[in-house]
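Q: what sequence does this backbone want?
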């Protein structure tokens, strides 16, 4: 099934719902109402019902949502019902932290390759992954790796986008805070940690912000 005209915001919330549902399932919960799920996640219950309505609803009157079934449905919508392999480009301090991050597993992601252009790093093994020369990115298509993670300096981002696209990668999560142009078939999501941090003072009490 293809989903048309679904707001990006609704899609962005699905992984949040999935993470909460996975936790509840581990705690032995089998069913949950939209209101109880909303209270658990700290969101509005009407928002949950509206988001799920785009994809069919999934709830049952009187019993709410079957958690195990709902997890399967969300995984299917997000195309997480199959394992996705990712390649990391840029094994600096941030890249090392990303390689060590265990949270990818709950969504079915596997970082299967890591690349860098520093001769001192090439050949080293980190988190059971041998760092390869960035020139070998072209092998990703044969290795069935369809996702990329970029932690390179800003000036190297565009070149890295292009190399990943040529290697058959379809989606990239970029920690390089650069709004570069990319090929139409390459979906890029940019995470700018400093920019997100810059939003926080707005929500702080005025008196405390003034002291700073």
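A:
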């Amino acid at each position: 099934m293809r989903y048309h005209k679904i707001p990006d915001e609704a899609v962005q919330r699905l992984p949040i719902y999935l993470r909460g549902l996975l936790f509840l399932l581990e705690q032995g919960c089998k069913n949950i109402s939209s209101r109880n799920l909303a209270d658990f996640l700290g969101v509005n219950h009407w928002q949950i019902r509206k988001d799920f309505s785009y994809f069919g609803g999934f709830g049952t009157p009187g019993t709410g949502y079957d958690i195990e079934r709902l997890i399967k449905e969300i995984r299917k919508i997000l195309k997480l019902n199959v394992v996705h392999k990712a390649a990391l480009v840029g094994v600096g301090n941030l890249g090392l932290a990303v390689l060590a991050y265990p949270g990818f597993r709950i969504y079915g992601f596997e970082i299967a390759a890591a690349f860098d252009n520093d001769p001192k790093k090439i050949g080293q093994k980190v988190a059971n992954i041998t760092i390869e020369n960035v020139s070998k990115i072209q092998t990703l298509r044969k290795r069935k790796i369809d996702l990329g993670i970029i932690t390179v300096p800003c000036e190297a981002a565009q070149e890295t986008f292009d190399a990943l696209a040529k290697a058959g990668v379809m989606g990239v999560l970029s920690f390089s805070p650069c709004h570069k142009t990319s090929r139409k078939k390459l979906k890029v999501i940019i995470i700018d940690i400093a920019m997100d941090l810059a939003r926080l003072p707005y929500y702080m009490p005025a008196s405390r912000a003034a002291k700073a």
